[in-house]
TrEMBL record:
PROSITE patterns: DEATH_DOMAIN. Residues 1-23 are annotated as: Disordered. This is Death domain-containing protein. Residues 29-101 form the Death domain. SUPFAM superfamilies: DEATH domain. It comes from Crenichthys baileyi.
Length: 113
């Protein structure tokens, strides 16, 4: 029996996500980030912290959009995408969503709608 490591690494999201690997390699669009922000609840800050956005930057986004949590989440997501460039992929976003306990369908809905 061979115990070789598979040539293709396992998907970061297990089998729960229906998004193809080719889509997960894409950088999210403004529209996709907006849809995602509208679907996130209180866990949005945990997601952004996992993505590497600083607590200070989150505080600024919260302060700038104190009456609108969705706008604060969107501003933070855009900040993350801007700071990470091509490394800001849907796959990376999916891993942070899952780390925060968010079901993959939340990202699927934001991307596939």
């Amino acid at each position: 029996m061979s115990t070789d490591v598979p040539a293709v690494p396992p998907r970061p999201n297990g089998d729960d996500c229906r998004l193809p690997d080719s889509v997960l390699q894409n950088v999210p669009s403004d529209r996709e980030l907006s849809r995602l922000a509208s679907r996130l609840g209180a866990e949005w800050e945990m997601v952004l912290l996992d993505l590497g956005v600083s607590a200070e930057a989150l505080y600024r986004c919260r302060s700038d959009h104190s009456l609108n949590t969705q706008a604060a989440a969107l501003a933070s997501l855009v900040l993350w995408r801007r700071s990470e460039g091509r490394k800001a992929t849907l796959g990376r976003l999916l891993r942070s969503l899952e780390a925060a306990g968010v079901h993959p369908s939340v990202l699927e809905d934001a991307v596939m709608c």
